[in-house]
């Protein structure tokens, strides 16, 4: 495959996100709908798919101490700036939060249960009329903007079943059409200067990690660091990763570099690799190549599991990407990386997602631990054999099988998780 196509896919998937991307997506939708109509807000209606609703349900809205779908929607309309995309709330002020608290009776959130893939629809009614926005497939992919039923902007829904793209974009279909050896050829031979931009994610995510070490969230990253000696890159990787997620899910006013629509995915696919690079004094080029591998494997699995699902994509999909990158940095080649992925598929596939909240850092820690274990096993030629569980003769089919566990495998599980979360919140 043309390496420029792969590079463009990576560039499009790398998007700065302010806070967890699900409340950020809701905020973007209401910010854009309000931008279309303006005026004094009378009421706001937001319709989302169950997965997005679940992920934002108990998540802190960035830059505030508030949480949940309702506050994200209100703050997007009151003080959001849609021109910043998933960072639309980055200029929110305390007065906006106070105003939002007085308007909780003006917001209504509904579920669109029978939709496929990510869906957010915002309807903002003001004294000027009605502004409406729809986001599909990706957290920042606005496909419709209306003002009083007049279309201001529209593009084709990428998940329309009459559209040949179906569940995948053209770019993503090309990723899943690649063999692992093709992926490795790209990683090993692409000109470093063409992928140097991947290091931007390191700078952004490391700042979140440093913020998390102040003790934000449950403080897991800080706790791990206390028992980490100078040369222990595994514990250091866990600390970097968990502290960044601690900061992110607790509403730290800093962006993460997302991948496949998730900041947590972006953190897990990069910071464990940075830990090895720093402790082993490796150069930036090999770090960038390992990130490329980590990102591509994550993208591959997410194309089958879906952007949002019942399993923890951070630990499973991003963790598997990280495991491949870890193996690469530890000297593994094609065979070892293939075996690393098999080991990951046999370990934590199926871990459930209960939305974006404090528990994310615990699950991320499990994913990072599994990633290092899988890579070290593979380096020592220890691997789960083919035809054991979901491990296929084909590594590409094995990655597809990881995704299949989530979609369609855990569709009913996802519904029950959401039901339980709603019950627990009462």
From TrEMBL:
Name of this protein: UPF0597 protein C7M56_16670
The record's InterPro entries line, in alphabetical order, gives: Ser_deHydtase-like_asu, UPF0597
**Family stated for the protein in its record:** Belongs to the UPF0597 family.
Annotated ranges, domain Serine dehydratase-like alpha subunit: 161-419
């Amino acid at each position: 495959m043309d390496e420029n196509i792969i590079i463009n896919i990576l560039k499009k998937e790398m998007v700065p996100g302010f806070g967890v991307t699900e409340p950020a997506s809701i905020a973007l939708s209401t910010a854009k709908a309000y931008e279309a109509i303006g005026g004094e807000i009378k009421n706001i209606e937001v319709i989302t798919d169950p997965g997005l609703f679940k992920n934002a349900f108990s998540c802190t809205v960035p830059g505030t101490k508030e949480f949940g779908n309702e506050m994200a929607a209100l703050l997007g309309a009151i003080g959001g700036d849609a021109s910043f995309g998933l960072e639309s709330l980055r200029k929110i002020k305390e007065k906006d939060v106070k105003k939002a608290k007085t308007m909780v009776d003006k917001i209504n959130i509904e579920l669109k249960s029978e939709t496929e893939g990510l869906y957010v629809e915002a309807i903002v009614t003001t004294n000027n009329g009605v502004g409406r926005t729809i986001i599909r497939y990706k957290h920042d992919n606005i496909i419709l903007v209306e003002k009083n039923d007049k279309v201001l902007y529209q593009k084709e829904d990428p998940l329309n079943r009459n559209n040949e793209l179906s569940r995948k974009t053209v770019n993503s279909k090309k990723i899943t059409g690649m063999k692992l050896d093709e992926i490795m050829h790209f990683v090993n031979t692409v000109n470093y200067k063409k992928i140097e931009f991947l290091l931007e994610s390191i700078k952004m995510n490391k700042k979140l990690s440093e913020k998390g070490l102040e003790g934000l969230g449950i403080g897991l990253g800080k706790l791990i660091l206390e028992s980490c000696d100078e040369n222990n890159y595994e514990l250091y990787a866990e600390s970097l990763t968990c502290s960044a997620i601690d900061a992110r899910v607790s509403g730290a006013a800093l962006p993460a570099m997302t991948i496949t629509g998730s900041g947590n995915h972006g953190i897990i696919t990069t910071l464990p690799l940075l830990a090895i690079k720093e402790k082993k004094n490796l150069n930036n080029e090999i770090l960038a190549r390992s990130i490329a591998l980590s990102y591509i494997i994550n993208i591959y699995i997410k194309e089958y599991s879906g952007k949002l699902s019942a399993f923890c994509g951070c630990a499973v999909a991003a963790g598997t990407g990280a495991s491949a990158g870890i193996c690469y940095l530890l000297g593994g080649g094609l065979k070892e990386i293939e075996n690393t992925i098999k080991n990951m598929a046999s370990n934590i596939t199926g871990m459930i997602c209960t939305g974006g909240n404090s528990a994310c850092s615990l699950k991320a820690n499990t994913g990072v631990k599994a990633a290092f274990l899988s890579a070290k096993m593979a380096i020592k030629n220890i691997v789960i054999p083919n035809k054991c569980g979901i491990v296929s003769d084909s590594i590409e089919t094995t990655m597809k099988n990881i995704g299949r566990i989530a979609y369609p495998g855990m569709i009913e599980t996802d519904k029950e998780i959401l039901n339980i979360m709603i019950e627990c919140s009462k």
